[in-house]
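User: Let's play a game. I give you a shape written as tokens, and you guess the letters that built it. Ready? Here's round one.
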């Protein structure tokens, strides 16, 4: 699998605007304050009724640096569950293997974060596409049989990086409120019921951003099925249940079983697509004091959009 920047990813005529710099003298939060991550992928009722496998996959690393990955296989692809599983495991290993590169970028206040970020945006896309290409060749399949979305989050002591191709949702507790990152409309393809997938994506279809870790006390990645009752379709609200799960994760009380039980609550299936649902999340201790000196007026997102989302107060939609 390729582990370096390659020439095979189409480059748009103009890349996204440079990422704004973080506030001066960022506050470093020890990575040891982050508790073990938790995640699960649950087969949706629509797949269960048809005897189909769960096409979502999650992976995480809690030792040292928190790394989260989630993928949702395309419903129209023959064996997209294999592509999703390969993506989350392969990308997670790739990130772990490059810890010596991640550390200066995400942990060093003096590092030129915008320059490094653009390298990582491209690097992840090249590697993710390479994972699917390799798997397609080994199984003698068209890569479109394996197509899937991909969401990634990597936590540093100074900066937290998020990256997304396709639909799904990334939610954070930033300061004392819950927010959804990214632009839900950008995750769609040419038509309303489509999304973009890793195998065919170019850099203009990658959403990404940096957040000051001092203001982030929890981060969660969700497939579109997992987000249906937890994040508003336009990203304007995040359900309070996510905050409760962050609290439980921070005190190491959250287990996959508890998430599964919540996902199987009949109310969670009402007015939904009955799709597979998955989530992987991490939270840190000491997050009860969210107002960190020097960050009280920091923007919600340090990324290419830079605008703040609204706050939710309900448990589900």
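Assistant: Ready! My guess for every position:
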């Amino acid at each position: 699998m390729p582990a370096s920047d390659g020439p095979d990813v189409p480059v748009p005529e103009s890349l996204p605007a440079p990422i704004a710099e973080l506030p001066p003298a960022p506050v470093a939060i020890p990575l040891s304050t982050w508790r073990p991550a938790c995640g699960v992928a649950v087969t949706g009722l629509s797949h269960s009724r048809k005897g189909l496998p769960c096409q979502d996959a999650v992976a995480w690393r809690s030792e040292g640096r928190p790394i989260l990955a989630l993928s949702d296989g395309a419903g129209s692809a023959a064996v997209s569950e294999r592509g999703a599983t390969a993506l989350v495991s392969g990308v997670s290993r790739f990130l772990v293997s490059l810890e010596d590169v991640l550390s200066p970028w995400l942990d060093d206040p003096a590092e030129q974060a915008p320059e490094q970020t653009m390298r990582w945006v491209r690097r992840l896309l090249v590697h993710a596409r390479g994972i699917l290409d390799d798997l397609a060749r080994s199984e003698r399949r068209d890569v479109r049989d394996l197509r899937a979305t991909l969401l990634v989050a990597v936590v540093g002591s100074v900066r937290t990086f998020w990256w997304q191709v396709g639909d799904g949702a990334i939610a954070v507790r930033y300061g004392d409120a819950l927010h959804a990152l990214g632009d839900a409309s950008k995750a769609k393809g040419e038509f309303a019921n489509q999304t973009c997938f890793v195998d065919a994506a170019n850099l203009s279809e990658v959403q990404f951003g940096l957040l000051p870790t001092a203001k982030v006390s929890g981060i969660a990645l969700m497939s579109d099925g997992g987000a249906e009752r937890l994040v508003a379709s336009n990203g304007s609200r995040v359900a309070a249940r996510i905050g409760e799960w962050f609290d439980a994760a921070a005190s190491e009380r959250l287990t996959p079983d508890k998430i599964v039980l919540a996902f199987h609550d009949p109310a969670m299936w009402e007015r939904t697509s009955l799709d597979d649902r998955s989530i992987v999340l991490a939270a840190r201790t000491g997050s009860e004091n969210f107002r960190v000196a020097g960050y009280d007026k920091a923007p919600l997102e340090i990324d290419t959009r830079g605008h703040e989302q609204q706050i939710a107060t309900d448990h589900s939609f």
